[in-house]
Amino acid sequence: MDDPYPPSSRRARHLGTWIAVVVVLVAMVLAAIVYAMVRPEADVQSPSADSSPERVVATYLQAMQVRDRGTMRDIVLDDELVPTWRDVLTDSDPGVTDVTLGELRQVASPTESAGAQWQQAVTVPAQFRVTRSGGGLVEGEESSQEYLLVRDGDDEPWQIAEVGQSSG
Fold first, then answer.
1. CATH number of 53-165
2. Cβ-based neighbours of 77, under 8 Å, separated by 6 or more
3. C-alpha of 13 from chain center
4. Does Transmembrane show up as a keyword for this record (predicted)?
5. Which residue, 137, 143, 164, 135, is CA-closest to 98?
6. Which of 21, 66, 127, 130 would be 42's cystine partner, CB 3.0–4.6 Å?
7. Cα–Cα distance between 89 and 34 in angstroms, integer?
8. Of 54-58, 78-82, 87-91, 109-113, which has the strongest mean pLDDT?
């Protein structure tokens, strides 16, 4: 019986199969490289519901340093305060070290933030050294920011609603 596929057609089919296999392997290797670049350097435990505002800010800054976006997301009201995977991939997500927290200050309540009214609000100033530029912070510089934390009652966890330049 005659072969319905001439040798040149079989070679073209095999070449096409090999090209597809190589493309898939290259895509898998690139995906693994990207994942390795954007995954957290360490996991930071999210603060408990009864954690103090200072503990919440310290955890947020620690999670920022090791790129634990999941923990950061647990702590903030607005995902705008969490670097995207693109920020991490391009190394434009901020990192900080040598953190010193200032004195907690009560804010007049109710406070409006993140489109809601909150019954309890405090600010926590922080000073730190920037280890990675991003989010308006410049690597190598000393900087300070103030964190507004809110909640509706003593039985709710504190969440970071806003981050701004420290006023004092």
1. 3.10.450
2. 113, 114, 150, 159, 160, 161
3. 46
4. yes
5. 143
6. 66
7. 7
8. 54-58
